[in-house]
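Side project, low priority. Logging it here so it doesn't get lost.
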Amino acid sequence: MSENILNVRIDAVDLKEAKEKVREFLDSNKQNKIFTPNPEMLVDAHKDKYFKEVLNDSDLNICDGKGIQLFSKGKLKRIPGIDFMLEICKIAEEEGKSVYLLGSGDKLVVENTKAELLKKFPKLRISGINQGPKITINNKQLLIDEEVNSKTIDEIIMTAPEILFVAFGHGKQEKWIDLNLEDLPSVKIAMGVGGAF
């Protein structure tokens, strides 16, 4: 079941069902993308065909905005992206899966995120952290420092995480996942987490 809002699919799942999906994704032999549409993202996707295609190509779109929940007349349950990221970390800790933290553009922010996650989930395996390449959007296309991006991808491949959290801000992170996920064979779940770090 899903709702279509501004031509973006949002899955009608509650937290329990969304967590079941995560367990399925971790057991599957394919790569899965999780995005967290909020009203701002839907407005951007309405103006940006590529962004809309990327969002609709995800394996799970959770409702991350009160506005979307209200608009759906209660058919969609709100699951804040940051809360869902923590739920995924809990599942990863239980199942011995490793996570990788990518993004924010600030080394200290990523280091602090790692420290906070390990306080909450002492047995969580964090295979690596990286502030990520500098990314800008020009005319709806990603502009990436290719050399830094290539090194980042190599590092993720070497540490072989099952779960990748990408925090470049909405639009950038979803497009980055779309462009780079297939080069990261160990990753079963890639999730855009915005400002969660």
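Brief comment: The beta strands are 2-5, 8-11, 32-35, 60-61, 98-103, 125-130, 135-138, 141-144, 163-167, 189-192.
Revisit when time allows.
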